[in-house]
Amino acid sequence: MTAPRVLALGGPGFVGRHAVRALRALRPDATFVIADRDAEAAARFAAELGGAESLGVDVTDRAGLDAALAGVDLVLNTVGPYFRFGVPILTACIDAGCAYVDVCDDPDPTVDMLDLDADARARGVTAVIGMGISPGVTNLLAVRAIDTLDTAPYVVTGWSLDAARPESVGRAPSAATVHGIEQLTGTIRVHRGGAPVDERPVRPVDIHYPNVDGARRGRPTRCYTIGHPEPVTLPRVIPGIRESVNVMVTDRWTARAIRSLAWCVDRGLVSHDRAAWLAERAEGSGAPDHAAEAVLAELVEGERGVPPVFAFVRGERDGRAMRVGATLTATPPGGMGGATGLPLAVGASLLLDGRVDAPGVHPPEAAIPVAPFFDRLARLCIPRRDDGAALVRVTSGPG
């Protein structure tokens, strides 16, 4: 069997480098091509890896992108924001016959990319979109939680804003922060009453997350809605979901500040990019690499509030109303770059191994085998877990 050739678009970036290193460990036989608009950065990272190739590629140059895709088996796309670059890059990959996986975290391009499903099927191309921490891990946590119930009409996916801060502040805002501003302004797509609905973001959602013993302790945790792909894709894939939102976990003062900044953007007083720049500086230099791990240890081991990454489901089991939560007991190392990039690498490895082989464009919950995914991710996390059963904690309680 010929060794697979993997093109890592945005490979030197803070998500891409984690994904490439992890996928290389999982598939050491693969040949990697590190591609970026900054050709020097791509060459430096390829030299760090050793044995990798590099390319200077501007993804907005279709001819140059097509040339880079020649002879490629799989594309890892970490070039964001995806509301700008997701659809054209996926279209080029389908036309070139390349398998594809990304960490798209924007709902609008998610819909547009799913609409390319027929084209991908016709070309025999398998594409998985949104295979990061959220979306990605959160979608698969939702599947684990839903599988414990007979019916699950109410699904929330969420994450801690403290654990999702940018890891550095530069002259230009990061794609992740630009994405955040985009999904906190205007309207967002959620699922209510069994149908997709557009509504204003930063709406409060109270969650009584079940502890290990299932008890209700103290007050529920107040979270706030933000635009994300999970409420778009989960109801498409899993029958019976009537309501689905994605939330961020933060304090009320931060939520008020976000609403104020969004008000300015919506009225044209501040651009999206300027708002992202201001948001990054308000947060300081960002979270250090260990921040997500520290937040996880505090919230998961302390058994209070909601975990920093979770799925929360309400439904019925044997005729009784139940609440179910699913989260991780360990986290990929490397801050948000690692938390996003390592799940991408695991998803890519399953695709390269033939465990994901259905042509078409799929969200994670429609294509990724849940148990093998968490088994592989477990061995990359800190602290290391032996398998998915030890990595994923599912708790439930009445009502």
Q: Class of the largest domain in CATH?
A: Alpha Beta
Number of E-state strands? 16
Strand content: 15-25%
C-alpha end-to-end distance: 53 Å
User: What does the radius of gyration come to?
Assistant: 20 Å
Topology-level CATH name of the largest domain? Dihydrodipicolinate Reductase, domain 2
Strand order, biggest sheet?
Answer: 3-2-1-4-5-6-15
Helix segment tally:
16
Q: How many structural domains does the protein architecture include?
A: 2
Largest sheet: 7 strands, parallel
Uncertain spans: 285-303
Q: Provide the CATH architecture of the largest domain.
A: 2-Layer Sandwich
Helices and strands: which structural class?
alpha/beta
Instruction: Give the CA-based shape.
Output: globular
- What is the overall pLDDT average? 89
What helical percentage do the residues reach? 25-40%
